[in-house]
Amino acid sequence: MSTEPVTKIFKQELINVQVAAPQQITTTPMFKKIKTSLYNACNKSYPPTPKSLNDAKIEGIWRQTLNGDPFLLIEQKQQPVFGTLSSLQQLCSSDHLFMDGTFSSCPSPFYQLYTIHS
Rounded to 5 degrees, what angle do the CA atoms 117, 51, 65 make? Predict the structure, then answer.
C-alpha cells in the first residue's frame, strides 16, 4: 500500500506513460474525470469504518509506524492511545505541552480526538 497522495501517484503515472508510450498520453483521461474511481480504489485498502466501539479493531499496519515501530501504545476500546516511545520521551522532557481536543475531525464511532504536542 502506498502512502503517497492519489494526485501524486496519478502525476507520476502520467510521466511514466509519457516516457514509455508517448502516443497514449492523448487517450489518458484527465484526473478530474476519474478521481472518484481512483479514490474509491484507494479507500478499499483501508479497514471499514466501525459501526460501534465494539466493532473498532486496530490491526496490522495500523498498529505501527511506517518504520515498523509500535504506534498503538494503549489499546482500550473507548480510548486508544497512539504515539511512539520517542514521542513519549520528548513529551516527558519538554517544558511546555500543547493540548487540543476536536469533535469535528473525529472518526465515528469515537466522540473526540485529543492531541498532545510539545
Answer: 35
